[in-house]
Design goal:
The protein is an alpha/beta fold and 303 residues long. The N and C termini lie close together (6 Å). The C terminus is likely disordered.
Length: 303
């Protein structure tokens, strides 16, 4: 069967175990599983690192950077060691996932955020920018007509302003309704974008849309599985409607940069495809090369 187009839904923090637990058939598609993330042993699965690795097909150092902030030396060494020690200390307790532990970790993150903001104000650090991605991306392939919407770091508009409230909302119940309202708005806006672009723009081989929604919901409502399930079901129903519009020559890839349990990122990702590729625990960074091979050949012997 020929494949002429690849449609990617990048869903931040989509957890494999929850998709299984709630048996979300449309998110599972025809083939699904866990992915191996591009992480070094000391790294925490961070959105601003994993997604650029996904679109470049490279490990963090080869992609361009390994931390969520770029610091001027010697502050880079200091911050790397502070963050590393914090992760090692909290990781032992995060497995318990109890409310007190998560609130304490949220407080520590806020402290690090404040420290990081101080470095930024002094022009000693900044968040990663597109130019920090040193490796080429799949969107830079001139032989592929691509559309990319809200990709973290690669596109400037990946995150809406409410993202800054997520950490505060973990320990501030008054902010939780604001997060939920904004998550619903983002979901509606970005699902509508997929349908609009999909129907209006026919001249593409690769289309990718990014969603931050599930990461925010699972951080803020980590102890409310019904709330989390509500948003997972929203995505499952969206995929069901989307698949009804797909032509037979379109490969639909659903992929996450990590999972999330009890408000903490897990060190595996999720993937599913609507056509069998015969993958088993694939590396997240291999998808770039798999997609390019499929679009180059416009067919694959595995289908």
């Amino acid at each position: 069967m020929k494949i002429n187009k690849v449609l990617i839904l990048g869903i931040d923090a989509l957890e494999y175990d929850l998709v299984e637990q709630w048996d979300l058939k449309h998110l599972k598609q025809r083939e699904y599983g866990k992915t191996i993330l591009p992480l070094y042993p000391w790294q925490y699965p961070a959105t601003s690192i994993i997604w650029p690795c996904f679109i470049t097909g490279k490990m963090p150092r080869e992609m361009g950077y390994t931390t969520t902030k770029t610091y001027i030396y010697p502050f880079s060494w200091v911050m790397d060691n502070i963050i590393l020690k914090f992760r090692l200390l909290t990781r032992r307790n995060e497995k318990n996932g109890n409310q007190n532990t998560l609130r304490k970790n949220a407080f520590k993150r806020k402290f690090l955020d404040k420290l990081s903001e101080s470095f930024t104000k002094l022009n000693l650090s900044r968040p990663p920018h597109k130019q920090d991605i040193k490796a080429s991306t799949i969107f830079d392939n001139q032989k592929i007509k691509s559309i990319h919407l809200h990709i973290p770091i690669y596109d400037k508009d990946a995150f809406l302003p409410y993202r800054k409230l997520v950490i505060d909302a973990i320990s501030n119940d008054a902010l939780k309704p604001i997060i939920e309202i904004n998550c619903k708005k983002e979901f509606n806006q970005r699902t509508r974008e997929v349908f609009d672009w999909f129907e209006k723009r026919k001249e593409w081989n690769l289309f990718m849309q990014y969603f931050f929604v599930l990461d925010a919901i699972q951080h803020v409502f980590y102890n409310n599985p019904k709330k989390i399930a509500k948003f997972y079901i929203m995505f499952d129903e969206f995929v069901e409607k989307l698949k009804q519009k797909l032509d037979d020559d379109i490969l639909l890839l659903i992929v996450s940069d990590h999972g999330q349990k009890r408000g903490e990122h897990t060190k595996h990702g999720f993937y599913s495809v609507n056509k069998p590729l015969g993958l088993k625990n694939p590396k997240l960074i291999d998808f770039r090369w798999t997609i390019e091979k499929i679009l180059k050949n416009k067919s694959t012997n595995n289908l």
